[in-house]
Design goal:
By secondary structure, the chain is an alpha/beta fold. The chain folds into 4 domains: 131 residues, P-loop containing nucleotide triphosphate hydrolases (Rossmann fold); 71 residues, Orthogonal Bundle (Helicase, Ruva Protein, domain 3), CATH 1.10.8; 90 residues, Zinc Finger, Delta Prime, domain 3, CATH 1.20.272.10; 75 residues, post-AAA+ oligomerization domain-like, CATH 1.10.3710. It has 22 helices and 7 strands. It has a 5-stranded parallel sheet, sandwiched between helices. A two-stranded parallel ribbon has the order 6-7. Helix 5 links the parallel strand 2 and strand 3. The longest helix is centred in the first third of the chain and has 16 residues. It is elongated. The N terminus is likely disordered.
Length: 426
Amino acid sequence: MKVKREIRPLAERCRPQSLDEFIGQRHLLGQGKVLSKLVEMKSPFSMILWGDPGCGKTTLARLIAFQCDLDSFFLSAISSGVTDVRKIIEKGKQNREMGIQTLLFLDEIHRFNKAQQDAVLGAVESGDIILIGATTENPSFQIIAPLLSRVRVLKLQRLNDNEMLLILDNAISKDKILDLKNIRFENGVKEKLIAISQGDARRMMNVLDESLLISKDDRLSDEILDEAIRDSAVYYDKLGDRHYDTISAFIKSIRGSDPNAAIYYLARMLSAGEDPEFIARRMIVLASEDIGNASPNALTIATATMVAVKNIGMPEAEIILAQCTTFLSSAPKSNASYIAIKKAKKYTEDLSFEIPMHLRNAPTRLMKEMGYSKGYKYPHNFEGNFVKEDYLPSEIDDKVFYEPSDHGIEKSIKDRLKKLWPERYG
């Protein structure tokens, strides 16, 4: 007879089964505190749990659901949409008629856009569902005001080293698989594991799990821990180095015209929970800085992408981001406009350069008498809508700031400027 093999990750196996087993968040779970009272009275309410990764948001929601006898549905805003939410709301209406309360847990709730968040407002207000949203982002900026007014925001604290140590020791002593092993930490390795986890209990469990797979005799050394960190899922801190390293690699891949690398880094950011609007904003900047007039419609496409991402939301927005990423990566490149503004700004420090009189505005009789706008030649009055004129201050009339490249549409721009201004572009 085959013995059923336990395949759940260690972090999942070690979730506490009651609030008494839960470690941390004593400001919410201590005697007489808000969540303790909620469970004691079996009187759940809609809330936003705000805190760092691995601090216990999902676990708390599960414990509330279990101990308050709720019909519970757990969704992630990364992979779910309004259709999924509406199905649960409809179930909640049916349950309410039978006296049953329904919980909708929405992980990464900040990933829902305004329209998607609007979809739950009525159900929360009517009591068809109890909403528990989990987020790592400040709800003040990421959650719409009407929804914030209908829920209570509870801030979870990052787990400290003592709490992380308790969670680690409990896992080793109580997990039915780890209990069969002879786990030994070399000097300083346990402390290092806690330190690199940065208060994220789930990450600590995942790295421990990976370390034990690498170790041949359940002895955990510094070298094994380093190897496990390399092989485990990337820790993506949206305020730290991983955030900046990944977006940097993404932008440089697009600039380097490598759509395969760019789409990989896009996928990596989205999988890690990066804000899709942040990615879209960076692509708008890149469209001007690195593509510019070589393919002017790149800016239009990038801007349209930003609008679409805001209005569509995840998960469908990833398709739009992917299309824009591959287009920008494949487009001809030019930073001529970027270089031009940098060059021109160097000459704006000296404000003594007078604007030529014929270019000045002359809205009054006095200004006209003083020579403002006198002698200005209106280009559309001339053949080809062009006439030779001096537009720069005389002190810098010989300077060339914009030098078009030979790439894409910009080559045509360069050819035209050569005909119009041969002394500059010839």
